Automatic annotation (TrEMBL):
Name of the protein in question: [cytidine(C)-cytidine(C)-adenosine (A)]-adding enzyme
Transmembrane stretches, start-end: none
Domain CCA-adding enzyme C-terminal, chain residue ranges per copy: 263-405
GO biological process: tRNA processing
SUPFAM superfamilies: Nucleotidyltransferase, Poly A polymerase C-terminal region-like
Signal peptide start and end residues: none
Cofactor: Mg(2+)
Keyword set, alphabetical order: Magnesium, Metal-binding, Nucleotide-binding, Nucleotidyltransferase, RNA-binding, Transferase, tRNA processing, tRNA-binding
Domain tRNA nucleotidyltransferase/poly(A) polymerase RNA and SrmB- binding: 162-221
Species of origin: Brunnivagina elsteri CCALA 953
InterPro entries membership: CCA-adding_enz_C, NT_sf, PolA_pol_head_dom, PolyA_RNA-bd, tRNA_CCA-adding_enzyme
Example of a GO MF term: metal ion binding
Amino acid sequence: MYKLALSSLSPENYPFDLDLLPQPVYLVGGAVRDAILGRKREYLDLDFILPQDAVKVARKLAAHYQAGFVLLDKERQIARVVFANATVDIAQMEGDSLETDLRRRDFTVNAIAFNPHTQEFIDPLQGYDDIGKGILRMVSSKNLEDDPLRLMRGYRQAAQLGFTLDSETQVAIRQLAPLLGKVAVERFRTELGYMLVNSQGTEWIVQAWEDGLLAPFFKNTTKEGCEYLLNVDKVADQLTETWQELGIELNKYVRDTIKTTWLGIAKIACLVSSEPETAEIELTELTYSRVEIKSITTALKLFPKFSKLEMPLREQYFLFQEAGFVFPTTSVLAVVRDNLVEGIAPLITRYLNPDDPVAHPTLLVSGKELIVALNIPASPIIGKLLAEIAIAQVEGRISTSEDAIAIARELIDSF
């Protein structure tokens, strides 16, 4: 097992020449743990500790490679060097020895040091043994108390690594859970975001709720909501078996700048109030983006309509217009809540057909053409007329631009 780690941590895998680092220097944290596990990352996240001059060394390294430099903590002497394929954090050793530093860390599996110059491992807390057993064990409850985010991080790491929590560690986390309220909400959401991306994470989110970790932030989460949450991945897989394109849509990010998937939106919707107005207040306090809040509240508002087995084309048209890109998320929520795949099958089929006139209408006329033809000013009435034209089109009552203008003339006095 150690040989595998040595291969992963060989000098050619670093984004810089190791000779530029003074001796002694130690690689610590997740990179060492993942190397022992044989886990590979496309983007490296390396953490080094030095006995002294950490920021000075980081500046010199950044200057040598013309890489990015960020001073993370002047008082504790922590700096970051950003390469194209790696982030390298260099920190001053805490305490008067390497072992003292390692004993200040969160979990034993993250308290193993590796000297890249001598190829030596330093493991005073038997983290290697815990890695072999697949156990996440705290170094001490005091360390968790010092940074309460570590409580949530434990569940996130257990999910990512496929580990279990040591029973004594889990008891300590439950006791310390109220302290999470002191943590900045953005830091908490980052940990939650990692857990939203797969089914293992989903199970640990529910476990975190049961152990009191969500309470400081998600005040309206219920047992029923958690039961729904546990079914989200299963339902998504079920729908993807029939509609592969829907699965692709569900795993896309809401925005390039927002690392939440549409399936993640469905999961968050299970954690907040089912009342859209209350959920909006809750999500705003949690500092979610406007697009995430709009997506979640839209899904909560619309999913009950998806269970209607007989829906006139007019209702379907307005449903698709309101749902927009949130349709895949809403479909999952509808099945999770009502277990009616057959009921929404026609809607999904329409949504996935880009030429479907109900889900993706192509207007016979534009708003500008209506303004000219009817000699009326631009106003909200134009949007209402266009909607009625689209409905008449999908119902088969009109088929040409002339028909569209004619029906608009008939309707304009009624608005």
